[in-house]
Amino acid sequence: YPRQHGPETQLSKFNLTEIEAMLGSYTKVLFVRDPFQRLISTFMQGMGSSPSFSSFVQDVLDSGQPNAPMAWNPLISLCQPCLVQYDYVVMFGFLRQELGHLLRRAGLPVDSHLPKFTDTQVRWTYSWLSEQMFNELSLQQKQQLSHFYRWDLAAFSFSGSLLSD
């Protein structure tokens, strides 16, 4: 889109005509990840100040959606998939399968300089880690997390998500 704007400029800063023109001129790709795995990743990166995963989850739940930091805010509120018509939605853990196809469809060269993805190992590790950390939570916390991320779980097919049970 020809208008100059910085990388941090939000769509809400533009008028409707500009937004439609911008979104119509871009290939829109949305990368999504199971919300529970996003929480684990955030916790492990030390983005929360809580000593245990259970207390971190309680901090997330206590913060509420309007005040939640971007790291654990539901995807629906961050990327507006009901308003923005994305060309591609790529699930975390399937990058190896999707990246070549995505690059070809976008008209970009698919070369051998792409990093090696270890999707299978990552999925297995997160599956094991998710079960361990999920077991640390109380039934009430599990139910509250499922409610907190209910729209993400409804919008995206996170097969095997512990929060959708």
UniProtKB/TrEMBL annotation:
<dbReference type="Pfam" id="PF03567">
    <property type="entry name" value="Sulfotransfer_2"/>
</dbReference>
<dbReference type="GO" id="GO:0000139">
    <property type="term" value="C:Golgi membrane"/>
</dbReference>
<dbReference type="InterPro" id="IPR005331">
    <property type="entry name" value="Sulfotransferase"/>
</dbReference>
<dbReference type="GO" id="GO:0016051">
    <property type="term" value="P:carbohydrate biosynthetic process"/>
</dbReference>
<keyword id="KW-0735">Signal-anchor</keyword>
<keyword id="KW-0472">Membrane</keyword>
<comment type="similarity">
    <text>Belongs to the sulfotransferase 2 family.</text>
</comment>
<keyword id="KW-0812">Transmembrane</keyword>
<dbReference type="InterPro" id="IPR018011">
    <property type="entry name" value="Carb_sulfotrans_8-10"/>
</dbReference>
<keyword id="KW-0119">Carbohydrate metabolism</keyword>
<keyword id="KW-0325">Glycoprotein</keyword>
<dbReference type="GO" id="GO:0008146">
    <property type="term" value="F:sulfotransferase activity"/>
</dbReference>
<dbReference type="GO" id="GO:0050655">
    <property type="term" value="P:dermatan sulfate proteoglycan metabolic process"/>
</dbReference>
<dbReference type="InterPro" id="IPR027417">
    <property type="entry name" value="P-loop_NTPase"/>
</dbReference>
<protein>
    <recommendedName>
        <fullName>Carbohydrate sulfotransferase</fullName>
        <ecNumber>2.8.2.-</ecNumber>
    </recommendedName>
</protein>
<keyword id="KW-0808">Transferase</keyword>
<keyword id="KW-1133">Transmembrane helix</keyword>
<keyword id="KW-0333">Golgi apparatus</keyword>
